[in-house]
Design goal:
mainly beta; two-stranded parallel sheet; two-stranded antiparallel ribbon; about 0% helix
Length: about 70
């Protein structure tokens, strides 16, 4: 696993099959209604603005969270 920590490393420097770790803070608006929400990861190509795909999908599901 290649840990990035708080440093930014452009996607172009990633290698196929490399595992990349990046902590990304998640801040919710205090007015967010209670409920279950899905977390999706979308990675965009900075040159084209188009999303990269994950197994043919435009987003990778990271799981769910519950807002109370």
């Amino acid at each position: 696993q290649s840990a990035l920590g708080g440093d930014w490393r452009p996607i172009q420097s990633w290698s196929a099959g490399e595992r990349v770790h990046q902590d990304v803070p998640l801040t919710l608006d205090p007015a967010t209604p209670p409920g279950d929400y899905r977390l999706l990861l979308v990675v965009y190509d900075p040159a084209t603005g188009q999303p990269h795909t994950f197994g043919g999908q435009a987003a990778l599901s990271l799981g769910e969270l519950m807002v109370r």
